[in-house]
Request: fold
Amino acid sequence: MEHTSPLERILRGIALTAVVVFFMFPILWIVLMSLQTNETILRSPPSMVFEPTLSNYQAIISGQLTGNTATLEIKFMGNLLNSIILSVGSVALALLLGVPAAYAFARHKFRGSEDIAFTLLSFRFAPPLLVLLPLTIIFQQIGLADTYIGLIWVYQLICLPLILWIVRGYFEDISPDVEHAYRIAGHSWFATFRHIALPLARPGIAAAGLLAFIFAWNNFIFALVLASADKQPVTVGALAFITASGIQYGQIAAAIVLSIAPTLALALYAQRYLVEGLSLGAVKG
Amino acid sequence: MTAMLNLQGVNKIYNPNSRHPVHAVIDLDLAVQPGEIVALLGSSGCGKTSTLRMVAGFEQVSSGSISLAGRDIHTFAPARRNVAMAFEGYSLYPPLTVRENIAFAMKSEKMATADVTARVDEIAQLLDIEDILDRYPTSLSGGQAQRAGLGRALVRKADLYLLDEPMGQLEPQLRAHLRGRIKHFIKERGLTAILVTHDQTEANALADRIAVMEGGVLQQFDTPAQLKDAPANLFTGTFIGEPPMNIFAAQAKSENGQLVFALDQGVDLSYDPTAFPDALQQAILGLGTVTLGVRPHAVQVRDHGAKAQVYAAQWLGDQTHIAAHFAGGSVVSVHHDRVSRAKGEEIGIVIAPQDLHVFDTASGNAVSHGGTLA
Ligand SMILES: Nc1ncnc2c1ncn2[C@@H]1O[C@H](COP(=O)(O)OP(=O)(O)OP(=O)(O)O)[C@@H](O)[C@H]1O
Ligand SMILES: [Mg+2]
Reply:
């Protein structure tokens, strides 16, 4: 154990608390807001004392948005479902394509392999608007506009490079001789990939998958341009809360809580992998 | 007897189409007999690992063929070649313990669990790793991991065992100790093995024959004794033996009925022609410019003989090394008793004709060893 003076411990505690409060406060505030009516939120001066209500959540879930003047139909739960379909679908596809590709790039230095890998990465540097206009036209011509498949395809621009580059690093960190030892004992390269390389890179794959999921979930611009109302994810769907009759803060807050819940839950669940995965070390000798 | 392993005209060129192709192995012919231990010896980067990897199947041969136990294996996947290999670097599977790693190698043999345990224990005892069997690879020292990897190779039943510097990370005492046991293990079972090493002592102690490589080219493939007594060229002559062979440039001539080698700075070594057969004399005189080699153990220090001046004399606990300025270069002489020579002292150097190695300076190839044509 380290020796620390009581003063040092107290100061450290204060610093930690300050950091936690700083980062957690917006989330806490949103949660509190989601439990209040628009009137209580907007009263002045603001107060922490209020009577919690679930009406915002009710409105969101039932799809009946009651403003000051009129009732509005909103398909937030549909948006949430779209978000889930699009994010899960694109991460699954990206893993399916990206992990074997990452393995190939890590293990087989073929002519132009660096160039191909870098081209894939450069998709992430390119401003999305650059590809959106031509994509829209092409998708309309081949009938992919406004389909889940089309969107998941475009989302690969976000997910695939991320997974490819993170996972490739993991494969490169595994000593090739670990795989060679397995192959020479009578196993095919595919069995080696499945039973040696994949398990050793698992923390990296989990971390990359999670990051890709978060990026996909938070994507706005692709879905805004390429998806019509019934395919829109929450990020785009949230625009509907800005209504002619005012901004429904309470309902927005409830919607935000619902939409960050999946990523938050996933991040908490996969925390172990994330820490392990992003700090490497798991497969080093 | 047909060879167990036969390499014919094997070449390895890395990145053949790039701007910097590396010709790592050049026209290698090598035949290993069943039950033989062959050492691949050579300096770093001379193509030893490349050769092993081609035999194991991790690298493709650029040209040539490899056959093992009568099968042409150079097109096979590693899994089908039936060879076992101990790797130079780190190669244990981290999620499994050492015991599981070793046992895992026998999976394809489909043995009863009790037999597997017995085999693992036997190997562990052989390599002194019983106490680490239940540890995980990441917690091992380099030498422990290396022995575990070696155990994993030796535990298998295979036509050929490839051992790439299997003891490189061990301290000399343990190395010497294990060397004997491993040799016994391999010989007792009649296994065929190729061992890669930098260490001459190890090659001499373990191998029936040693293949000396340099720059991707096989220089000589012979028994340890032959390598020492009859090096095929200047490279093996100077590479094998510790301390290295003394080398002198010389002009051969016939003078006053004597065969004379004129060294630099007017030093002449004269020999009675009867020590050299006629054909050999013809060959040496025909060349004129030759390189003489003499092992430090064969350099005699006398009061007569060619003049030399001592610049260092060291007693190493079991032998004395005397280094002296001689013929524009230097000469090292080794004695098995304690010889005290002061710095700056004049001594006489005598080299007996039977200890003289003559090399063709132009090609580097040996002309004669002692009085016999190479
Ligand atoms: N994958 C590769 N790509 C390009 N060049 C390589 C590759 N592997 C080895 N080489 C080159 O081939 C030559 C022989 O390498 P090799 O590993 O066979 O040497 P070695 O004799 O085993 O050396 P050491 O004793 O250091 O292990 C070296 O010049 C090396 O740089
Ligand atoms: Mg090597």
The mean pLDDT of chain B is 92. Residues B 48-49, 88, 164 surround magnesium ion (ligand 2) (CB under 6 Å). Chain B has two domains: 5-233, 246-373.
